[in-house]
Each structure stands twice: as C-alpha cells, then as structure tokens.
Amino acid sequence: MKNVFLVDDSATMLMSLKGTLEISGYKVELASDGEAALGKLRGGYKPDLIITDINMPKLDGISLIREARKLLRFTPILALTTESQQLKRDEAKKNGATGWLVKPVGGADLVKVIKQVLPGA
Amino acid sequence: MQAHAETVSKAPGRLSRWLRALTGRFGQPSTADRALDELKETGTYLTLMHQQLGGALGESDAGAQQVIERLQSIHAVSLQQSDRIDETEANGRHLMQVMKDKVMADTQLGSILEMFVQKQEADVQANLERIKRLQGVKGLAPLVDVIATVARQTNFLAINAAIEAARAGEAGRGFAVVAAEIRQLSNRTSEVAVDIAGRINAATNGIDEELRTAVETSDRSTTTSNMRRVLSDIADMQERFAQSVAQLDLDAVIRGVRSGHQDIADRLADALGQVQSHDVVRQRVENVQRALDDLTQHLRQTSQQLNSPGAPALDGPPLSQRMQQHAQSYVMGSERLTHREVTGQQHAADAGSTPRIELF
C-alpha cells in the first residue's frame, strides 16, 4: 500500500482528500501547514507521494516543495491549489514540483493523476 | 501622484467646513451631519457582514465535514457488505464442494448398486435355469412303467412256470421253487416300481412348485425394482445438480457483486473529491472578508477626517488603490474574471488560460 502525504490548512480539504485516497487504497498521513509537514519529513517520514496546497500559513507550498525536494530527490510532489497563476505554477516547477492541479479536482481524476506519477499504485 | 494626494488630503477638510457651515445655518442636525453619522455606522455594518460571512463559512465547513463523514460511513457499510459477500462466497463454494462430493459418492453407490442388481438378476435367472434342468426328472417316469410292465410279465411267466412244474410232478419240484422265487422277485420289482414312480412324481411336483415360486419371485422382485428406482433417482439428481451448477455460475455472481462494490467505492471517492469545491468557496469568501476589513478601515479613516477639519490627511491609500491592491491578492481565475467584469481592468496574471491539471 502506497503512502500519500497530504498537506493543507483546511481541515475539510484534508478530510475529503483522505476519504478519497483511503477508499482508493492508499495509506494517508496529514499535515495542516507547510511547517508541520516539513518537520515530519525532516523527522524521517518518507512518503511515496506528497500532495500539497500552495497558499498556507507559516510555510507556503512553494517553499515546502523546495525544502522537501532537498530531502526526497525522486518522490513525486503534486500541488493541489486554487491558485491558477502561471507565475506560481512556473515557480513550483522550478522548485521541483511534479505536477499542478487546480481545485476542485474530482476524486476519479485525482486518482488517475496519482496512478500516472506512481506507477504500480 | 503628489497632486492627487494633496487634493485628497484637502478635500475632506473643505467638505467638513462646508458641512458644518450648513449645520450652523439651520441650527439643527443637517443632512450632512446625518450623512456623517451614517458613514460611521457603515463600518459597523461592514464588520457585521464580515462576521456573518465568517459564521456562514463555519457552518458550511461543519456541513461539508458531516457530508464527508456520511460518505465515509456509506463506504464503511459497503466494505461490510463486501466482507459478507466474501463470507457468502466461501460458504457457497464449500456447499458446492459438499454437493459435488455427495454426487460423487452417490455415483459410486449407484455403480455398486447397479452391479448388485445385475448379479441379483443373474442369480435369479441361473436359479430358474437350474430348476428347469431338474424338470428332466419327469423323463424317468416312462422308465418306471417299463419296469412295472417287465415285472408284470415276469409274474405271468413265473405263474406259468409254476403250473408246468406242478404238471411235471416230482421232477418239476425244483423248478417250482425257482418259479416261486421269480414270482416273488417280480412282485417286489412291481412294488419298487410303484415306489419309484411315487417318488419321481413327488420330486416333479416339488420342482414344479419351486419353479413357479422362482418365476413369481423373479417377476415380483420389489428389492430389485426399488434398487432400480434409487438408481434412477440418483441419475435424476445428478442431472438436476449439473443444470443448477450451470445456471448458478457462482463466479459470475461474485464478479458482478464485486464490480458493483468497486463502482460504489469509485463514486464515493469521486464524491469526496468534489467537496474541494467547498474549499474554493471558502478561500473566495475569506478574500471578500479581507476586502471588507480594508473597506471598513478606509471608511473609518474617512469619517474621522470629516469630523476633524484640522486633522492631517488620510493615512491609508485611496479607495481605487485599495481595490488594485485587493486585486493582487486574487488566486483564482474566477476572482480575476469577476474583477474585470466589474471594473473593466485587466489583471497582469490574467493572460491566457492554463490547464487545470498539468504534469511537468
């Protein structure tokens, strides 16, 4: 069972995404902001995939992607955000993001993308 | 920009003086005073709107979370159903195996019974044949008649010999003894012939009786017919079982149920994903709340300026600038679209549409 790390400052988002992914057969860990997420990664947690929001308190998603990429070189990182500016998208790509998804993304589409970036999942 | 700032800083002072002049002229609260009071209240009203939006967001959050919990509980029930189906499948397969074993055992039993019935029938037939062969005893009866005839003629011969011996007198005395012995032997032979005939008759009657009984037994053999019926029942049952197995197709049923369960799970997963729309709304409303805060602050400063003619110019930026700053905080294309529709201003980040899902 693949591990997915969800990072979002909305409890509702975390609940809904966790439900979607658990029903689809993934093991899910949660963090409610970038700082908490980075702390967990620095503590040795190695997920198979990270899905992060961009606009978050304490540490934003772009910064989290940059720092996470230093720790996990090959782990796919998806940004799942309401942010639609190309500038931000380019910035995330430059810092090591694997993909960019604009909310809302239906559960079926989300699982499809995850299967693309996590072969065999 | 400098000129604009000066104009802005001077304007409230002039307006205030003019408004106060109007108030003094009529000696009662003027329309302008009432307008100032209204302006002060506007801030409270905007704060109220801010709080109402916050409350609505909180309720919406709680509602969305309840929906998620319900969807998850549906999935839990679906999982329980899936477990029950697995259990039923195991029981069904066990039952099928038991039935197959039973049919196999019945088939073996049928084979044994068939062999037994065939042997039974062969034995009965062999008995009949043996009894029929015994009827050959009847063929002895004519021989007994021959013996009786010979004995009778011998008796006549002995009588004649005795008569002739009597005629011969002393010379025939010895011959008369022989004739008497022969006659005695003849009588004894006749008796034995009668006895043999009686015994042959009795044996023949016994054999006929046995034959009749054996034929009747063969015709009315309930054991054999019962066994035949059992064999027929077993064959029928095997046929019905084979038809039932073909119609049941347990694998197809289980495949169908599992496919249905997977479909439910996929739809639930998709429905849970749709709750993200709530987050989109939440972020947009929170941005409106920030704009309301900004507007409240602006109105408060404007009100203070109107009430204090000598006060320094406004600290914050003018409303148009605040609106532009607010536009910078947009993250969604839909926010920028609304802004453009209302103000006619194109946002810098508004150029071109980007895909909603993009893998780098």
Overall geometry of chain A: globular
Give the overall pLDDT of chain A as a whole number. 92
SSE-based structural type of chain A: alpha/beta
Q: Which outline of chain B best applies?
A: rod-shaped
Distance between the termini of chain A: 8 Å
The beta-strand count of chain B equals 1
How large is the share of residues in beta strands of chain B? under 5%
User: Largest sheet of chain B at a glance?
Assistant: none
Alpha carbon gyration radius of chain A: 13 Å
How many DSSP H or I helices of chain B? 9
From the alpha carbons, calculate the radius of gyration of chain B and give it in angstroms.
65 Å
Plain-language structure description:
The complex is a heterodimer of chains A (about 120) and B (about 350). Chain A contains 5 helices and 5 strands. Chain B is an all-alpha fold and about 350 residues long. Chain B has 9 helices and 1 strand. In chain B, helix 2 runs antiparallel to helix 6 and helix 3 packs antiparallel against helix 4. The two termini of chain B are about 45 Å apart. Strand 5 of chain A pairs antiparallel with strand 1 of chain B, so a sheet runs across the interface.
